[in-house]
Amino acid sequence: GQQLNQSPQSMFIQEGEDVSMNCTSSSIFNTWLWYKQDPGEGPVLLIALYKAGELTSNGRLTAQFGITRKDSFLNISASIPSDVGIYFCAGQLPGNNDMRFGAGTRLTVKP
Amino acid sequence: DADVTQTPRNRITKTGKRIMLECSQTKGHDRMYWYRQDPGLGLRLIYYSFDVKDINKGEISDGYSVSRQAQAKFSLSLESAIPNQTALYFCATSDWGPSGISGTQYFGPGTRLTVL
Q1: How do residues A26-60 score in pLDDT, each as one tens digit?
Q2: Test the B interface: residue of A24, A99, A101 with most B CBs within 10 Å
């Protein structure tokens, strides 16, 4: 019940295309976070969302905290080759503040 | 210099051996975390600590122990390593975020552990 279902698992797109990925859960989360992980590195935070309905942008990235607090999406516009990597959603549970991570979306961008 | 460092970066060991992974941070954060990452499973929380005297079990704490030696140091131990503990291990830190929930987590570069 506290697991995050992240989709899609992988994406292969052409440079310049837009990308959308999402996470859903049957549980409510207080915070939604989106991270990117490059090979051999730890995850790096892209966007943090703290309120239901919040829509936040960071350059070409836009993410939203779902109204039900059970989902979030991340959009990347006009993709470029350096967008390649694994994107993880993460949610923070009410009460104990434990974090749960999605399984990741592996993005490949073809020049 | 990196804000969150982990040592070693890579380790190969044998079943039954005791292993310690170390994490240090210069961010001045009170909160520290240990995660493991397995292919297709994302990151799973092992243990976390909100200050030097505070230790909490995470989602998958069995087979692991931790020690918070100082605000800046948080070590993870495998008392008797087994092959299914082969994984990528990440340390993370955070400060206090809005309304008392944890703030942004900053991750170390990871330790790749292989148990034969």
Answers
A1: 999 999 999 999 988 889 989 999 899 999 999 99
A2: A99
